[in-house]
Amino acid sequence: MGQQQSKDELLYQQVSYGNTEGIKALCRDGARLEWMDREGKTPLIVACMNPDLHNVAKTLIELGANVNAYRPGRHAGTPLHHAAKRGLENTVKLLLLYGVNALVMNDDCQSPLDVARAKGHGNVVRAIESHICLFSGWMREFYGPGFLEVLVPQLLARKVWVVVLPCGTRNHTKPFKLELAIYPSVQDAQPRTVVALWKANLEEPKSHQSDPSVIIVENTTKTRIKLAPANEGDKQQLLWFCNACKGIPQAHPAFMQHNNETPVVPATAPPATEDLEIAMAINASIQSAIQERPPFHDAHLSSEASTSNTKSSSMNTSSHSHLGTPKAPVLLTGASEQPGHAISTSAPLITDGIVEDGPIHYPSIDSSPIDISSPTADVYLLELVIRKEKKKVLQHA
After folding, report:
1. Residues 334 and 198 in one domain
2. Which of 73, 144, 218, 392 could, after both became Cys, cross-link 223 (CB 3.0–4.6 A)?
3. Angstrom distance (rounded) from CA 294 to CA 392
4. Average of pLDDT values for 116-140?
5. Model confidence at 163: pLDDT above 90
6. Are 104 and 156 within one domain?
């Protein structure tokens, strides 16, 4: 065990030396890539803290290092947090290219984007935003008193850089929340205005307007923001912006590209005779249970469920556009997830918060008696399973 640890530590040391060939040789010799020092830094985190170790970081990632390795404590987080803090634009783009989760928050409740904004690294801010945003571009912002806005709107409009993007989160099983960030220019790292879109209302443009605009009202602070396309009459850009505020991207950003389909693995050998017999016995047992089961008389439950669905659908209908969280949750790929592999569960996930959509409806319990007078198929199934297990034991003996 001690020899294995020394190999891992030696690989960690080669990172600081920038010795990519030594790292590859140690990895071939069995050294692990996730060894941590006393401060919780992995080799990849160390490489992402130094602008001269970009090639080392790329080598580690290509060898299989975890791009989402998490370092606990203050001013820590993932490799992306450390690269963003130091303004290492090329390293940030490398991590984004290899699928790092850009929405993870560190122990200071900051996402990598928050860290880059706080440190004033505008290039890193643009790199992360362009990777995760649903919309970004120049728009016109109207400001000043309302009556002047009507009289001389062209004098009270200014060009601003607008971005619609998801917020950092700790719970990636919940629907993401969107925010609107408005920058004075594309060079600025800190936004002048940030609006939580799940707490805002959107007044969509009127079709008859020659130069349409959209108004966003933040419900808590009553902040009112009026935006128009960068070019007068560009209704297409305004449509893209409105859709993004509702959670509909123009093109799927990287954080939404997650394939939930379970891959079909072809069989490498024909099924054994015992497996076919077991399958036939299971089918016979199921058919027997279906035939012997008494009819289900609680038909009123289905009508109650239908009524409940009708009520909930009618309650969701609104005359205005309220920008809440998108209804479909987006699962973010983490360190241990492989694209295309979905985890099948037998029960729904347990959420942290309290259900706010209404009362909790528990499923009814079938208390009807079970007839076990003819267990012939089940006994036959049990005998087949026991026979198969005995054969396995004899083969391994």
Report:
1. yes
2. 218
3. 39
4. 97
5. yes
6. no
